[in-house]
Amino acid sequence: MAVYQYRCAEHGVLEVARPIGTAADSEPCPGCANPAPRVFTAPRLALGSARNRALIDRTERSADQPAVVPAPQSRRAAPQAQNPALARLPRP
Ligand SMILES: [Zn+2]
Q1: What are the start and end residues of every segment in region (Disordered) (predicted)?
Q2: Which protein residues have their CB within 5 A of the ion that is ligand 1?
Q3: In the chain, what are the domain boundaries?
Q4: What are phi and psi of 24, to 5 degrees?
């Protein structure tokens, strides 16, 4: 079995496992049933075990589709001056 990639314009990349040499030029997208054209990629032969491939896939996917997004850092309020005359001084 080989994994072939197809790209739907709306839903992105989908992977289909087929026997080697039986890939169609397009596959129906499971999301919208429109034909998704085949994407030619390098064969995944030298990437090691399935565990390693899963790790590499997760790493590549996290670059543009992160599962966890850090919260924006909140700005701390400027400390209030105790002396009212200090509050009138110019700020940087
Ligand atoms: Zn689609």
Answers
A1: 57-92
A2: 8, 10-11, 29, 31-32
A3: 2-63
A4: -85, 165
